[in-house]
What we know:
Elements: E1 4-8, H1 13-27, E2 34-38, E3 55-58, H2 74-92, E4 97-100, H3 102-110, E5 115-116, E6 122-131, E7 147-154, E8 157-158, E9 165-171, E10 178-181, E11 185-188, H4 196-205, H5 217-226, H6 231-243
Parallel strand pairs: 1-2, 1-3, 3-4, 4-11
Antiparallel strand pairs: 5-8, 6-7, 6-9, 9-10, 10-11
Helix pairs in contact: 1-4, 4-5
Amino acid sequence: MKRFLILQLRPEADASDAEYASILDKTGLTPEQTHRIRLDCEDLPKGLNVTDYAGVIVGGGPGCVSDDPATKSELDTKIENAVMGLMPQITAQDHPFMGCCYGLGVLAAHLGGDVSKAKFGEPVGPSACHLTEDGAADPLTAGLSPKFDAFVGHKEAVQTLPDGCVHLVASDPCPFQMIRWGQNVYATQFHPEADAKDFEQRINIYKHHGYFPPEDAQRLIDICNAADVTQPGEILRRFVERYR
């Protein structure tokens, strides 16, 4: 079978390694069935053709596509440009894509949508999500519980649904938790790969990145460890099962 391309945007090696391990765990993929690229320290191969892969999975990261380009670090700019550079291929060919958290901002921005910090940012922790009518019928979400918790933590969000997109999952604090463009291009605001252990690690790594007051770290860790978050991982598993 073709491999899955896993693009990672986290410059922190421990967070990136844990995210990759979680993606493998939730999907059942082996390292040999993936091509992992850490965009913080690797370049995309020249002439990369997304159709050489069964699908593309983009992980999360601390960057924000809506930040003023003049304020972005050289590394953040490099990472964002690399991912954005693949989006014309992905949408033109409706190639299987799953963007996780940062990946939703990338997809929406590429489609000309409104991504900003104006509204809908969410604190780190579990968020109560629900399927839309379209979500109840989509291959990746049909048959899931109509309501489920997912781990989130983001400063920016999609403000309005981009033209041509289908709205699959919503929450009260952040309406656009999962969308689909075409038939095969997906993105989630929540982290489908993450479990409580992942979020405990990320809370400790990112507690000085402006997501929450650093003194709240242990309280947020306790909230995450008490949460029952299982269905987001099933969405990621279904994505791989559908396109492998």
